[in-house]
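Thread: "does anyone have the structure for this chain?"

Original post by V.I.:
We have the sequence but no experimental structure in hand. Need at least a predicted one for the grant figures.
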Amino acid sequence: MKKENISREERILNALGEVDEKYIAEAAPAGKTGGKITWLKWAAPAACAILLVSAGIRFLPAVLSGGFPDSSGPHSSGHGAENGEAGLPMLTVSENSYESMGYEGYMAYDISDLTNANPWDKTWELSTLPVYRNTLSHDTDFLVSGTDFEAMEAFLLEIAERLHMDTDTLEVKDNAPDDEERAIITEKFEGKVPEGYFNPTELVAQENNIKIEVDISMTATITFEPAISLPEDCHFSHYSSYEDTLAVAEYLQETYSDLINMDEPLINIHGGDYNIYRQQMYHIAFFNAAESLTERILNYQFYQVAFYCDDEGRLNMARVFRPDLSHKAGDYPIISEEEATELLLKGNYITTVPCEMPGQKYIAKTELVYRSGKYEEYYMPYYRFYVELPEMEWEDGLKDYGAYYVPAVRQEYLTNMPVWKGEFN
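Reply from O.Q.:
Generated one for you, C-alpha cells below.
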C-alpha cells in the first residue's frame, strides 16, 4: 500500500486533532452534504440554563451493508470480567462514549414527524439479543488499537468490484504522513509525539470519477466527482418531501443494486425532524431483510448502505457500513419495554440531554436500538426513549424531543447500572 497524496495542510490539521473536513461538512448547514444543521440557542429555564447545541447532532447507529455478519469468530471474555449467570461475561455500560458536542435532540411538531424503518415492534417478544465486543479500543491519547488493515483492504476491493472498477490495476494507498509532515507535527508537539500517532487510519483508492475511502471502523465512503445527475422526475434535495425522498430511494435501489448488494433490500427513509429554519429533512438508506427478527434488527442497526446529495440535487456520496462483529460476547436476556420505563423513571439512564428526565407523561416514543459508537466497549441493545422537553418548546409549537437510553440487557449481567448525575454522563 502506498501513501495517499494528501496536501500537507490537510495532513497537519488532521494529525493535530482537527475534525476531518467531511465530518465538518456533515455538521454544517445541509448545503454541503445533506447533514443536519448544528445550531445554538439559550435555554431560559433554570433546569437547562446552559448553552445548548441541538437539532443537528447526528447520533445515528453505526450501519453497514452486505450479508448477515458471521458471529462464529473468537468470543470476548469481557476483558477479564467475571462471568455472570449462564456463563456469560459481565458487561460494562459505556457512560462517556459520546463523540459530538451538544445533545441528542430532535425538533418536530409531533412525534409522528420522526420516522425510520426500525424493525423492532413492542408486540414482538424477544427474550435474548446478541452483544458484541468492539474490536477497536482507544488509549488515553485516543490512539486506536485493533485495526485490521487486511480486512479494510479486502472491504475496499469488494466495494470497488461492486462499482465495476478494475481491481487488478486499482492502487490502494494509506493516509500515513510522509517524513516532511512528520517533522512538522513533531516540532509542533515539541518532540513528544505519542507512539503510534503516525499510524495510518484510512485506506484510499480512486479510479476516474470514483473515490473509495475505508476507515478503521470499516465504513466505506464512496465519493462521486463530478456528482451524478438524477432523472428530472427525481427530486433529490436536502429538504425533499417524504414522498419525493421515497421515489428517489426506489430509483437508487434499482440503479445501484450492485452497490447495495442485498438479497432483499428494505428502504429506510429516516429523519423527519426540523432545523431552526423549519426545514424538514429525510435521509435514504437500505438494509437487508431477514426471516428472524433478531437478524433483521442487526441488519438495520449495523449493515446499511446510505446515499447523499449535494446542493444541486445530484448524487455525490454513498456509504457502506460494516463494523467488525466477529467478537460475540453472547446472547443476553433482555428486559421488556415496561421494565425499561421503570428504570428510566428511577434515573437509571444515560443521555446527553442536560436536563433531568421530566416525567412519564412526556415519553413520546420508544424503540430498541444498538449503541455502536467508536468509544463503546460493547455493542449492546438499549431502549431509546424520545422524551418531550417542555421547557424547549418554541412559540410556534415546534417541540424538542431528547433521547434517553436504558440498557436492554438484564441488570444482573451489568457491572454498572448508569445513574443520572444531573450532568452530561
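V.I.: this helps a lot. The longest strand covers residues 378-388.
O.Q.: and Residues 149-162 form the longest helix (14 residues).
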